[in-house]
Specification:
The complex is a heterodimer of chains A (280) and B (316). Chain A has 280 residues and is of the alpha/beta class. Helix content of chain A is 36%, strand content 13%. Chain A has a five-stranded parallel sheet with strand order 2-3-4-8-7, with helices on both faces. A two-stranded antiparallel ribbon of chain A has the order 1-9. Chain A has a two-stranded antiparallel sheet with strand order 5-6. The longest helix of chain A has 17 residues, at 18-34. Chain A is globular, with a radius of gyration of 18 Å. Chain B has 316 residues and is of the alpha/beta class. Chain B folds into two domains: 2-155, 3-Layer(aba) Sandwich (Rossmann fold); 167-315, 3-Layer(aba) Sandwich (Rossmann fold), CATH 3.40.50. Chain B is built from twelve helices and twelve strands. Chain B has helices at residues 2-15, 32-37, 49-61, 72-76, 80-89, 117-122, 135-145, 196-209, 227-234, 252-264, 287-293, 298-315; strands at residues 19-23, 42-44, 65-71, 95-99, 128-131, 152-155, 177-180, 188-192, 214-218, 221-223, 239-247, 270-276. Chain B has a seven-stranded mixed sheet, sandwiched between helices. Chain B has a five-stranded mixed sheet with strand order 7-9-8-11-12, with helices on both faces. Chain B is globular. The chains are: A alpha/beta (280), B alpha/beta (316). At the A-B interface, helix 6 and helix 7 of A face helix 3 and helix 5 of B.
Protein backbone atom coordinates (compact mmCIF):
# COMPACT_ATOMS: atom_id res chain seq x y z
CA UNK A 1 0.00 0.00 0.00
CA UNK A 2 1.33 3.41 -0.86
CA UNK A 3 2.21 5.61 2.07
CA UNK A 4 -0.46 8.13 2.87
CA UNK A 5 0.65 11.66 2.13
CA UNK A 6 0.12 14.34 4.73
CA UNK A 7 -2.85 16.49 3.79
CA UNK A 8 -1.76 19.73 2.23
CA UNK A 9 -2.73 22.71 4.30
CA UNK A 10 -3.62 25.55 2.03
CA UNK A 11 -0.23 27.09 2.51
CA UNK A 12 0.41 30.45 1.00
CA UNK A 13 3.45 31.10 3.10
CA UNK A 14 4.52 34.73 2.92
CA UNK A 15 8.15 35.24 1.92
CA UNK A 16 10.60 35.34 4.80
CA UNK A 17 10.86 38.82 6.20
CA UNK A 18 14.08 40.47 7.29
CA UNK A 19 13.76 39.27 10.90
CA UNK A 20 13.35 35.65 9.83
CA UNK A 21 16.38 36.00 7.56
CA UNK A 22 18.36 37.66 10.35
CA UNK A 23 17.54 34.77 12.70
CA UNK A 24 18.58 32.26 10.07
CA UNK A 25 21.87 34.09 9.57
CA UNK A 26 22.47 33.71 13.30
CA UNK A 27 21.66 30.01 12.94
CA UNK A 28 24.24 29.75 10.15
CA UNK A 29 26.73 31.62 12.36
CA UNK A 30 26.13 28.97 15.03
CA UNK A 31 26.47 26.08 12.58
CA UNK A 32 29.67 27.61 11.26
CA UNK A 33 30.97 28.04 14.82
CA UNK A 34 30.55 24.36 15.50
CA UNK A 35 31.24 23.32 11.91
CA UNK A 36 28.29 21.03 12.32
CA UNK A 37 24.71 20.83 13.42
CA UNK A 38 21.13 19.95 12.61
CA UNK A 39 20.52 22.30 9.72
CA UNK A 40 17.13 21.18 8.44
CA UNK A 41 15.68 20.54 11.87
CA UNK A 42 16.62 24.01 13.13
CA UNK A 43 15.57 25.98 10.05
CA UNK A 44 12.06 24.53 10.15
CA UNK A 45 11.70 25.75 13.74
CA UNK A 46 12.80 29.37 13.32
CA UNK A 47 9.39 31.02 13.05
CA UNK A 48 7.95 28.89 15.85
CA UNK A 49 10.78 29.96 18.19
CA UNK A 50 10.62 33.54 16.95
CA UNK A 51 6.93 33.93 17.67
CA UNK A 52 7.18 32.17 21.03
CA UNK A 53 10.00 34.45 22.24
CA UNK A 54 8.84 37.64 20.50
CA UNK A 55 5.13 37.46 21.18
CA UNK A 56 3.98 34.65 23.44
CA UNK A 57 6.20 33.54 26.30
CA UNK A 58 6.59 35.43 29.57
CA UNK A 59 10.21 35.39 30.75
CA UNK A 60 12.96 37.51 32.25
CA UNK A 61 16.31 37.12 30.55
CA UNK A 62 18.12 38.54 33.57
CA UNK A 63 16.25 36.16 35.89
CA UNK A 64 15.93 32.91 33.93
CA UNK A 65 14.38 31.01 36.87
CA UNK A 66 11.77 33.72 37.55
CA UNK A 67 8.86 31.72 38.99
CA UNK A 68 6.31 33.64 36.94
CA UNK A 69 7.81 32.56 33.62
CA UNK A 70 6.08 30.31 31.14
CA UNK A 71 7.80 26.97 30.65
CA UNK A 72 8.92 26.18 27.12
CA UNK A 73 10.53 22.80 26.65
CA UNK A 74 12.27 22.12 23.36
CA UNK A 75 11.65 18.39 23.37
CA UNK A 76 13.21 18.01 19.92
CA UNK A 77 16.55 18.97 21.39
CA UNK A 78 18.34 18.56 18.07
CA UNK A 79 16.58 21.71 16.88
CA UNK A 80 18.39 23.66 19.61
CA UNK A 81 20.12 26.11 17.29
CA UNK A 82 16.76 27.79 16.69
CA UNK A 83 16.40 28.23 20.45
CA UNK A 84 20.02 29.31 20.99
CA UNK A 85 19.51 32.06 18.44
CA UNK A 86 16.50 33.38 20.33
CA UNK A 87 18.33 33.13 23.67
CA UNK A 88 21.02 35.36 22.19
CA UNK A 89 18.43 37.73 20.72
CA UNK A 90 16.74 38.11 24.08
CA UNK A 91 19.90 38.52 26.13
CA UNK A 92 20.01 35.18 27.94
CA UNK A 93 23.42 34.54 26.38
CA UNK A 94 25.87 36.77 24.48
CA UNK A 95 25.88 36.50 20.69
CA UNK A 96 29.53 35.46 20.84
CA UNK A 97 28.50 32.29 22.65
CA UNK A 98 26.85 31.11 19.44
CA UNK A 99 30.31 30.88 17.88
CA UNK A 100 31.34 28.30 20.48
CA UNK A 101 28.61 25.84 19.51
CA UNK A 102 29.70 22.23 20.17
CA UNK A 103 33.23 23.30 21.13
CA UNK A 104 34.80 21.45 24.03
CA UNK A 105 34.17 23.98 26.77
CA UNK A 106 31.06 25.61 25.33
CA UNK A 107 27.78 25.82 27.20
CA UNK A 108 26.04 25.19 23.89
CA UNK A 109 26.05 21.53 22.96
CA UNK A 110 24.46 19.77 20.02
CA UNK A 111 21.56 19.20 22.38
CA UNK A 112 20.61 21.71 25.10
CA UNK A 113 21.49 21.18 28.75
CA UNK A 114 19.44 22.92 31.42
CA UNK A 115 22.24 23.04 33.96
CA UNK A 116 24.47 24.99 31.57
CA UNK A 117 22.29 27.31 29.53
CA UNK A 118 20.23 30.09 31.10
CA UNK A 119 16.68 29.91 29.81
CA UNK A 120 16.69 26.20 29.01
CA UNK A 121 14.13 24.37 31.15
CA UNK A 122 15.19 20.78 30.57
CA UNK A 123 18.02 18.83 29.00
CA UNK A 124 16.71 17.20 25.87
CA UNK A 125 18.09 15.24 22.98
CA UNK A 126 16.82 11.75 23.68
CA UNK A 127 13.41 12.02 22.05
CA UNK A 128 9.98 11.60 23.56
CA UNK A 129 10.71 12.97 27.02
CA UNK A 130 9.48 16.56 26.94
CA UNK A 131 5.71 16.10 26.95
CA UNK A 132 5.86 14.13 30.21
CA UNK A 133 7.96 16.88 31.80
CA UNK A 134 5.28 19.26 30.63
CA UNK A 135 2.53 17.17 32.23
CA UNK A 136 4.34 17.31 35.59
CA UNK A 137 4.97 21.04 35.28
CA UNK A 138 1.40 21.78 34.24
CA UNK A 139 0.03 19.76 37.18
CA UNK A 140 2.41 21.58 39.54
CA UNK A 141 1.11 24.93 38.24
CA UNK A 142 -2.44 23.71 38.79
CA UNK A 143 -1.70 22.69 42.40
CA UNK A 144 -0.20 26.11 43.09
CA UNK A 145 -2.93 27.94 41.18
CA UNK A 146 -0.32 29.61 38.96
CA UNK A 147 -1.30 30.77 35.49
CA UNK A 148 1.91 29.34 34.02
CA UNK A 149 1.62 28.12 30.46
CA UNK A 150 3.63 25.04 29.56
CA UNK A 151 4.58 24.65 25.92
CA UNK A 152 6.34 21.54 24.63
CA UNK A 153 7.82 21.66 21.15
CA UNK A 154 8.29 18.28 19.48
CA UNK A 155 9.48 17.02 16.14
CA UNK A 156 7.45 14.86 13.83
CA UNK A 157 9.98 12.04 13.93
CA UNK A 158 10.04 12.42 17.69
CA UNK A 159 6.39 11.57 18.04
CA UNK A 160 7.11 8.08 16.74
CA UNK A 161 8.05 7.45 20.38
CA UNK A 162 5.44 5.62 22.42
CA UNK A 163 6.25 7.70 25.46
CA UNK A 164 4.78 10.76 23.69
CA UNK A 165 1.43 9.02 23.44
CA UNK A 166 1.60 7.86 27.05
CA UNK A 167 2.07 11.50 28.00
CA UNK A 168 -0.74 12.55 25.67
CA UNK A 169 -3.11 10.07 27.35
CA UNK A 170 -2.12 11.49 30.71
CA UNK A 171 -2.48 15.15 29.65
CA UNK A 172 -5.90 14.44 28.20
CA UNK A 173 -7.04 12.60 31.31
CA UNK A 174 -6.06 15.54 33.51
CA UNK A 175 -7.61 18.07 31.10
CA UNK A 176 -4.45 20.16 31.24
CA UNK A 177 -5.58 23.32 29.52
CA UNK A 178 -2.31 24.98 30.57
CA UNK A 179 -0.31 22.54 28.44
CA UNK A 180 0.30 22.89 24.72
CA UNK A 181 1.98 20.39 22.42
CA UNK A 182 3.58 21.99 19.37
CA UNK A 183 4.61 19.75 16.49
CA UNK A 184 7.22 20.89 14.00
CA UNK A 185 5.72 18.89 11.15
CA UNK A 186 8.34 19.26 8.45
CA UNK A 187 7.49 15.76 7.21
CA UNK A 188 11.05 14.57 6.88
CA UNK A 189 12.83 12.61 9.56
CA UNK A 190 16.42 11.51 9.55
CA UNK A 191 15.92 8.48 7.34
CA UNK A 192 13.50 10.08 4.89
CA UNK A 193 9.87 11.20 4.51
CA UNK A 194 7.73 10.58 7.59
CA UNK A 195 5.02 9.14 5.36
CA UNK A 196 7.40 6.36 4.40
CA UNK A 197 9.37 5.82 7.61
CA UNK A 198 6.51 5.90 10.12
CA UNK A 199 3.40 7.58 8.82
CA UNK A 200 1.74 9.92 11.31
CA UNK A 201 -1.48 10.59 9.45
CA UNK A 202 -4.17 11.40 10.29
CA UNK A 203 -2.17 13.48 12.75
CA UNK A 204 -4.76 16.08 13.69
CA UNK A 205 -7.28 13.34 14.40
CA UNK A 206 -4.76 11.49 16.54
CA UNK A 207 -4.31 14.44 18.88
CA UNK A 208 -8.04 15.01 18.98
CA UNK A 209 -8.57 11.33 19.79
CA UNK A 210 -6.23 11.82 22.75
CA UNK A 211 -8.54 14.59 24.00
CA UNK A 212 -6.50 17.54 22.82
CA UNK A 213 -7.96 20.58 21.10
CA UNK A 214 -5.85 20.48 17.94
CA UNK A 215 -5.33 22.84 15.03
CA UNK A 216 -3.12 23.05 11.95
CA UNK A 217 -1.13 26.14 11.16
CA UNK A 218 1.47 27.23 8.64
CA UNK A 219 4.62 27.04 10.76
CA UNK A 220 6.41 29.72 8.74
CA UNK A 221 3.59 32.27 8.67
CA UNK A 222 4.44 34.60 11.53
CA UNK A 223 1.01 36.24 11.64
CA UNK A 224 -0.78 32.90 11.61
CA UNK A 225 1.46 31.57 14.40
CA UNK A 226 0.86 34.69 16.51
CA UNK A 227 -2.86 34.35 16.04
CA UNK A 228 -3.00 30.70 17.10
CA UNK A 229 -0.57 31.03 20.04
CA UNK A 230 -2.43 34.02 21.36
CA UNK A 231 -5.66 32.01 21.31
CA UNK A 232 -4.27 29.51 23.84
CA UNK A 233 -5.79 27.57 25.43
CA UNK A 234 -7.67 26.37 22.38
CA UNK A 235 -10.29 24.88 24.71
CA UNK A 236 -10.98 25.43 28.37
CA UNK A 237 -11.31 21.76 29.28
CA UNK A 238 -8.40 20.10 27.52
CA UNK A 239 -4.78 20.50 26.46
CA UNK A 240 -3.96 22.11 23.14
CA UNK A 241 -2.00 20.76 20.18
CA UNK A 242 -0.69 23.00 17.42
CA UNK A 243 0.51 21.16 14.37
CA UNK A 244 2.88 23.48 12.56
CA UNK A 245 3.30 22.57 8.91
CA UNK A 246 6.86 23.47 8.13
CA UNK A 247 9.57 22.89 5.58
CA UNK A 248 12.71 21.08 6.55
CA UNK A 249 15.65 23.39 5.92
CA UNK A 250 13.29 26.35 5.30
CA UNK A 251 15.01 29.38 3.82
CA UNK A 252 18.03 27.54 2.41
CA UNK A 253 16.73 26.64 -1.03
CA UNK A 254 19.22 23.86 -1.75
CA UNK A 255 18.62 22.23 1.64
CA UNK A 256 14.84 22.43 1.72
CA UNK A 257 13.02 19.11 1.95
CA UNK A 258 16.28 17.22 1.67
CA UNK A 259 16.84 14.57 4.35
CA UNK A 260 20.56 14.82 3.67
CA UNK A 261 20.49 18.24 5.36
CA UNK A 262 18.88 16.87 8.55
CA UNK A 263 22.33 17.06 10.12
CA UNK A 264 25.59 18.18 8.54
CA UNK A 265 29.14 18.03 9.70
CA UNK A 266 32.12 19.70 8.04
CA UNK A 267 30.39 23.06 7.78
CA UNK A 268 33.59 24.94 6.98
CA UNK A 269 33.95 28.38 5.39
CA UNK A 270 32.88 27.30 1.90
CA UNK A 271 29.64 25.69 3.13
CA UNK A 272 28.89 28.60 5.46
CA UNK A 273 29.35 31.00 2.55
CA UNK A 274 26.81 29.05 0.49
CA UNK A 275 24.37 29.00 3.41
CA UNK A 276 24.67 32.76 3.88
CA UNK A 277 24.30 33.33 0.14
CA UNK A 278 21.09 31.31 0.12
CA UNK A 279 19.63 33.76 2.61
CA UNK A 280 20.31 36.84 0.48
CA UNK B 1 7.81 -3.54 54.18
CA UNK B 2 5.80 -2.35 51.20
CA UNK B 3 2.90 -1.21 53.33
CA UNK B 4 5.29 0.52 55.72
CA UNK B 5 6.96 2.25 52.81
CA UNK B 6 3.68 3.50 51.36
CA UNK B 7 2.37 4.54 54.76
CA UNK B 8 5.55 6.53 55.15
CA UNK B 9 4.90 8.31 51.83
CA UNK B 10 1.58 9.47 53.26
CA UNK B 11 3.24 10.40 56.54
CA UNK B 12 5.94 12.40 54.74
CA UNK B 13 3.30 14.08 52.59
CA UNK B 14 1.48 15.22 55.72
CA UNK B 15 4.72 16.70 57.01
CA UNK B 16 5.98 18.24 53.80
CA UNK B 17 3.95 19.81 51.00
CA UNK B 18 6.61 18.95 48.44
CA UNK B 19 5.89 15.22 48.74
CA UNK B 20 3.55 13.53 46.29
CA UNK B 21 2.77 10.00 45.16
CA UNK B 22 2.58 8.61 41.62
CA UNK B 23 1.63 4.99 41.00
CA UNK B 24 1.13 3.14 37.73
CA UNK B 25 -1.63 0.54 38.04
CA UNK B 26 -1.50 -0.68 41.63
CA UNK B 27 -4.01 -2.20 44.04
CA UNK B 28 -7.47 -0.64 44.23
CA UNK B 29 -7.74 1.70 47.19
CA UNK B 30 -3.99 2.04 47.57
CA UNK B 31 -3.23 5.01 49.84
CA UNK B 32 -6.94 5.78 49.79
CA UNK B 33 -6.72 8.10 52.79
CA UNK B 34 -3.98 10.10 51.13
CA UNK B 35 -6.05 10.32 47.96
CA UNK B 36 -9.01 11.60 49.97
CA UNK B 37 -7.02 14.06 52.05
CA UNK B 38 -4.73 15.44 49.37
CA UNK B 39 -6.04 14.45 45.93
CA UNK B 40 -3.76 16.95 44.21
CA UNK B 41 -0.75 15.01 45.46
CA UNK B 42 -1.95 11.47 44.72
CA UNK B 43 -1.73 10.13 41.16
CA UNK B 44 -2.45 6.75 39.56
CA UNK B 45 -1.48 7.07 35.92
CA UNK B 46 -1.85 3.61 34.45
CA UNK B 47 0.69 1.40 32.76
CA UNK B 48 2.74 4.25 31.35
CA UNK B 49 6.07 3.93 33.13
CA UNK B 50 8.02 6.15 30.73
CA UNK B 51 5.46 8.91 31.17
CA UNK B 52 5.25 8.43 34.92
CA UNK B 53 8.99 8.96 35.31
CA UNK B 54 8.96 12.02 33.05
CA UNK B 55 5.95 13.45 34.85
CA UNK B 56 7.72 12.93 38.18
CA UNK B 57 10.71 14.76 36.71
CA UNK B 58 8.48 17.65 35.65
CA UNK B 59 7.09 17.88 39.19
CA UNK B 60 10.60 17.71 40.67
CA UNK B 61 11.78 20.50 38.34
CA UNK B 62 9.06 22.59 40.01
CA UNK B 63 10.34 21.77 43.51
CA UNK B 64 8.32 18.66 44.40
CA UNK B 65 9.58 15.34 45.79
CA UNK B 66 7.67 12.61 43.95
CA UNK B 67 7.59 9.04 45.27
CA UNK B 68 6.91 6.74 42.32
CA UNK B 69 5.79 3.19 42.84
CA UNK B 70 5.38 0.14 40.65
CA UNK B 71 6.84 -3.32 40.21
CA UNK B 72 10.64 -3.32 40.39
CA UNK B 73 11.27 -4.67 36.89
CA UNK B 74 8.99 -2.07 35.34
CA UNK B 75 10.39 0.88 37.26
CA UNK B 76 13.93 -0.06 36.21
CA UNK B 77 14.02 -1.97 32.94
CA UNK B 78 10.92 -0.58 31.27
CA UNK B 79 11.83 3.09 31.60
CA UNK B 80 15.60 2.96 31.95
CA UNK B 81 16.26 5.90 29.62
CA UNK B 82 13.71 8.03 31.47
CA UNK B 83 15.38 7.16 34.77
CA UNK B 84 18.80 8.00 33.32
CA UNK B 85 17.92 11.21 31.47
CA UNK B 86 14.90 12.60 33.32
CA UNK B 87 16.06 11.85 36.84
CA UNK B 88 19.80 11.21 36.95
CA UNK B 89 20.98 13.74 34.36
CA UNK B 90 18.79 16.43 35.94
CA UNK B 91 19.75 15.30 39.48
CA UNK B 92 16.16 15.39 40.65
CA UNK B 93 14.89 14.20 44.04
CA UNK B 94 12.52 11.54 42.71
CA UNK B 95 12.16 8.30 44.69
CA UNK B 96 11.58 5.05 42.83
CA UNK B 97 9.90 2.41 44.97
CA UNK B 98 10.29 -0.99 43.30
CA UNK B 99 7.91 -3.69 44.49
CA UNK B 100 9.32 -7.20 44.62
CA UNK B 101 13.06 -6.78 44.39
CA UNK B 102 15.02 -9.92 43.58
CA UNK B 103 13.09 -13.18 43.66
CA UNK B 104 9.94 -12.00 45.48
CA UNK B 105 7.66 -12.62 42.49
CA UNK B 106 8.89 -16.20 42.12
CA UNK B 107 5.53 -17.61 41.00
CA UNK B 108 5.20 -14.99 38.27
CA UNK B 109 8.32 -15.92 36.36
CA UNK B 110 11.25 -14.12 34.76
CA UNK B 111 9.36 -11.07 33.46
CA UNK B 112 8.67 -10.10 37.07
CA UNK B 113 11.94 -11.10 38.72
CA UNK B 114 14.14 -8.08 39.37
CA UNK B 115 17.48 -9.81 39.14
CA UNK B 116 19.55 -6.94 37.73
CA UNK B 117 17.76 -3.92 39.20
CA UNK B 118 20.58 -3.10 41.59
CA UNK B 119 23.22 -3.56 38.88
CA UNK B 120 21.58 -1.30 36.32
CA UNK B 121 20.50 1.37 38.77
CA UNK B 122 23.97 1.41 40.26
CA UNK B 123 25.50 2.09 36.84
CA UNK B 124 23.68 5.42 36.52
CA UNK B 125 25.50 8.59 37.58
CA UNK B 126 23.81 10.46 40.48
CA UNK B 127 21.57 7.51 41.40
CA UNK B 128 21.37 6.28 44.98
CA UNK B 129 20.53 2.60 45.41
CA UNK B 130 19.01 1.16 48.57
CA UNK B 131 17.75 -2.22 49.77
CA UNK B 132 16.76 -2.26 53.43
CA UNK B 133 16.33 -5.51 55.35
CA UNK B 134 13.00 -5.08 57.16
CA UNK B 135 10.02 -2.82 57.74
CA UNK B 136 11.55 -1.01 60.71
CA UNK B 137 14.58 -0.09 58.69
CA UNK B 138 12.28 1.02 55.87
CA UNK B 139 10.83 3.63 58.21
CA UNK B 140 14.31 4.93 58.95
CA UNK B 141 15.20 5.02 55.27
CA UNK B 142 12.00 6.83 54.33
CA UNK B 143 12.62 9.49 56.94
CA UNK B 144 16.09 9.99 55.49
CA UNK B 145 14.79 10.35 51.92
CA UNK B 146 13.11 13.69 52.52
CA UNK B 147 16.28 15.76 52.36
CA UNK B 148 18.40 13.56 50.07
CA UNK B 149 19.16 15.62 46.96
CA UNK B 150 19.45 12.89 44.32
CA UNK B 151 17.16 10.25 42.84
CA UNK B 152 16.85 7.12 44.99
CA UNK B 153 15.97 3.57 44.02
CA UNK B 154 14.22 1.87 46.92
CA UNK B 155 14.12 -1.89 46.52
CA UNK B 156 11.28 -3.53 48.39
CA UNK B 157 11.38 -7.05 49.80
CA UNK B 158 8.45 -9.42 50.09
CA UNK B 159 6.83 -8.05 53.21
CA UNK B 160 6.46 -9.69 56.58
CA UNK B 161 10.21 -10.11 56.62
CA UNK B 162 11.64 -10.82 60.10
CA UNK B 163 12.81 -7.66 61.84
CA UNK B 164 16.53 -7.84 62.46
CA UNK B 165 17.45 -4.16 62.34
CA UNK B 166 17.72 -2.15 65.56
CA UNK B 167 16.99 1.45 66.40
CA UNK B 168 20.16 1.85 68.38
CA UNK B 169 22.26 1.23 65.28
CA UNK B 170 21.01 4.47 63.80
CA UNK B 171 20.56 5.07 60.09
CA UNK B 172 22.16 7.24 57.46
CA UNK B 173 22.00 6.76 53.70
CA UNK B 174 25.40 5.49 52.57
CA UNK B 175 26.46 4.22 55.99
CA UNK B 176 26.72 0.47 56.48
CA UNK B 177 25.61 -1.15 59.73
CA UNK B 178 27.62 -3.88 61.48
CA UNK B 179 24.95 -6.35 62.62
CA UNK B 180 27.28 -8.83 64.23
CA UNK B 181 30.87 -8.27 65.25
CA UNK B 182 33.48 -11.00 65.35
CA UNK B 183 35.79 -11.22 68.36
CA UNK B 184 38.91 -10.73 66.30
CA UNK B 185 39.68 -8.85 63.12
CA UNK B 186 40.94 -12.08 61.56
CA UNK B 187 37.47 -13.41 60.98
CA UNK B 188 34.90 -14.37 58.42
CA UNK B 189 33.01 -11.29 57.19
CA UNK B 190 29.64 -11.64 55.55
CA UNK B 191 28.59 -8.53 53.65
CA UNK B 192 25.02 -8.35 52.41
CA UNK B 193 22.24 -6.09 51.22
CA UNK B 194 18.45 -6.29 51.56
CA UNK B 195 16.98 -9.37 53.21
CA UNK B 196 20.17 -11.32 52.49
CA UNK B 197 21.44 -9.67 55.65
CA UNK B 198 18.84 -11.66 57.57
CA UNK B 199 19.97 -14.87 55.88
CA UNK B 200 23.59 -13.98 56.64
CA UNK B 201 22.82 -13.50 60.33
CA UNK B 202 21.33 -17.01 60.39
CA UNK B 203 24.30 -18.34 58.41
CA UNK B 204 26.64 -16.67 60.90
CA UNK B 205 24.93 -18.53 63.76
CA UNK B 206 25.53 -21.80 61.94
CA UNK B 207 29.16 -20.96 61.26
CA UNK B 208 29.64 -19.93 64.89
CA UNK B 209 28.35 -23.32 66.01
CA UNK B 210 31.21 -24.81 64.02
CA UNK B 211 33.63 -22.58 65.89
CA UNK B 212 34.03 -19.82 63.36
CA UNK B 213 34.36 -16.16 64.30
CA UNK B 214 31.96 -14.18 62.06
CA UNK B 215 31.00 -10.56 61.38
CA UNK B 216 27.93 -9.55 59.40
CA UNK B 217 27.83 -6.10 57.81
CA UNK B 218 24.59 -4.80 56.37
CA UNK B 219 24.70 -2.45 53.39
CA UNK B 220 21.22 -0.97 53.10
CA UNK B 221 22.81 1.44 50.63
CA UNK B 222 24.60 -0.12 47.68
CA UNK B 223 25.37 3.26 46.14
CA UNK B 224 27.02 5.31 47.48
CA UNK B 225 28.80 2.31 48.95
CA UNK B 226 30.29 2.70 52.42
CA UNK B 227 33.88 2.07 51.35
CA UNK B 228 35.19 2.82 54.81
CA UNK B 229 33.13 -0.02 56.26
CA UNK B 230 34.14 -2.38 53.45
CA UNK B 231 37.81 -1.74 54.10
CA UNK B 232 37.54 -1.71 57.87
CA UNK B 233 36.04 -5.18 57.95
CA UNK B 234 37.83 -6.67 54.96
CA UNK B 235 41.39 -5.53 55.59
CA UNK B 236 42.32 -8.23 58.07
CA UNK B 237 39.55 -10.70 57.33
CA UNK B 238 40.21 -14.37 56.88
CA UNK B 239 37.52 -14.44 54.23
CA UNK B 240 34.97 -11.99 52.87
CA UNK B 241 31.71 -13.25 51.40
CA UNK B 242 29.27 -10.95 49.61
CA UNK B 243 25.69 -12.17 49.47
CA UNK B 244 22.98 -10.70 47.25
CA UNK B 245 19.58 -11.56 45.86
CA UNK B 246 20.49 -10.42 42.38
CA UNK B 247 22.85 -10.98 39.50
CA UNK B 248 26.52 -11.05 40.38
CA UNK B 249 27.28 -9.01 37.26
CA UNK B 250 27.55 -5.42 38.37
CA UNK B 251 25.59 -5.84 41.58
CA UNK B 252 26.44 -5.47 45.25
CA UNK B 253 29.26 -8.03 45.19
CA UNK B 254 30.80 -6.27 42.20
CA UNK B 255 30.68 -2.96 44.07
CA UNK B 256 32.47 -4.46 47.07
CA UNK B 257 34.99 -6.24 44.86
CA UNK B 258 35.78 -3.02 43.02
CA UNK B 259 36.65 -1.33 46.29
CA UNK B 260 38.73 -4.24 47.54
CA UNK B 261 40.71 -4.59 44.33
CA UNK B 262 41.35 -0.88 44.02
CA UNK B 263 42.23 -0.24 47.65
CA UNK B 264 43.83 -3.47 48.86
CA UNK B 265 45.51 -4.65 45.68
CA UNK B 266 47.91 -7.48 46.37
CA UNK B 267 46.76 -7.93 49.96
CA UNK B 268 43.22 -8.96 49.06
CA UNK B 269 41.45 -11.26 51.51
CA UNK B 270 39.94 -14.50 50.26
CA UNK B 271 36.71 -13.52 48.58
CA UNK B 272 33.52 -15.42 47.82
CA UNK B 273 30.65 -13.89 45.91
CA UNK B 274 27.23 -15.45 46.38
CA UNK B 275 24.33 -14.32 44.22
CA UNK B 276 22.40 -15.17 41.10
CA UNK B 277 24.11 -16.57 38.01
CA UNK B 278 24.02 -14.89 34.61
CA UNK B 279 20.70 -16.46 33.60
CA UNK B 280 16.99 -15.75 33.79
CA UNK B 281 15.40 -17.84 36.52
CA UNK B 282 13.03 -20.39 34.99
CA UNK B 283 11.56 -21.96 38.11
CA UNK B 284 8.45 -20.88 40.00
CA UNK B 285 7.34 -21.62 43.54
CA UNK B 286 8.13 -19.38 46.48
CA UNK B 287 10.91 -16.88 47.02
CA UNK B 288 12.34 -19.15 49.72
CA UNK B 289 12.36 -22.04 47.28
CA UNK B 290 14.30 -20.00 44.76
CA UNK B 291 16.74 -19.07 47.53
CA UNK B 292 17.41 -22.79 47.78
CA UNK B 293 17.74 -23.18 44.03
CA UNK B 294 20.42 -20.47 44.00
CA UNK B 295 22.23 -21.25 47.23
CA UNK B 296 20.95 -18.23 49.13
CA UNK B 297 19.36 -20.06 52.08
CA UNK B 298 21.25 -19.63 55.38
CA UNK B 299 22.56 -23.19 55.56
CA UNK B 300 23.75 -22.96 51.97
CA UNK B 301 25.54 -19.68 52.61
CA UNK B 302 27.23 -21.21 55.66
CA UNK B 303 28.21 -24.32 53.73
CA UNK B 304 29.60 -22.31 50.83
CA UNK B 305 31.71 -20.22 53.19
CA UNK B 306 32.98 -23.30 55.03
CA UNK B 307 33.92 -24.93 51.78
CA UNK B 308 35.73 -21.81 50.61
CA UNK B 309 37.70 -21.71 53.84
CA UNK B 310 38.82 -25.29 53.28
CA UNK B 311 39.82 -24.60 49.69
CA UNK B 312 41.71 -21.53 50.83
CA UNK B 313 43.57 -23.47 53.49
CA UNK B 314 44.41 -26.21 51.01
CA UNK B 315 45.82 -23.68 48.54
CA UNK B 316 47.76 -22.02 51.35
Amino acid sequence: MAAQAAPALNLATPPLDERSKHLRRLAVRTLHGGERGHVGSSMSLIEIMRVLYDDVLRYRANEPKWPGRDRMILSKGHGCIAQYVMLAEKGFIPYETLDTFCRRDSILGGHPEAAKIPGVEASTGALGHGLSYGVGMALAARIEKRDTRVIVVMGDGEINEGSVWEAALCAGKHKLNNLTAVIDYNKIQSAGPTCEIQDLEPLLDKWRAFNFAAVDVDGHDVEALREVFNRLPLAADRPSAIICHTVKGKGIAFAENDANWHHKSKIANDVATKLYAALE
Amino acid sequence: MRQTCLNMVYDLAKRDKRVLFIGSDLSPGLLGDMKKEMPERWYMEGITEANVIGMAAGFAMEGYIPYVNTIATFITRRCYEQVAVDLCLHELPVRLIGNGGGLVYAPLGPTHLAIEDIAIMRALPNMTVTAVCDAKEMMRLMNATLEWPNPIYIRLAKGGDPVVSRDENGFAIGKAIPMRRARSRRSIVLMATGVMTTNCLAAADLLAKDGHDVSVVHFHTVKPLDEVAVLEFARDAELVATVEEGTMIGGFGSAVTDVLVEKLGASLPALVRIGLPDAFPHKYGLQEELFEVYGLAPAQIAARVSKSLKVKDKVA
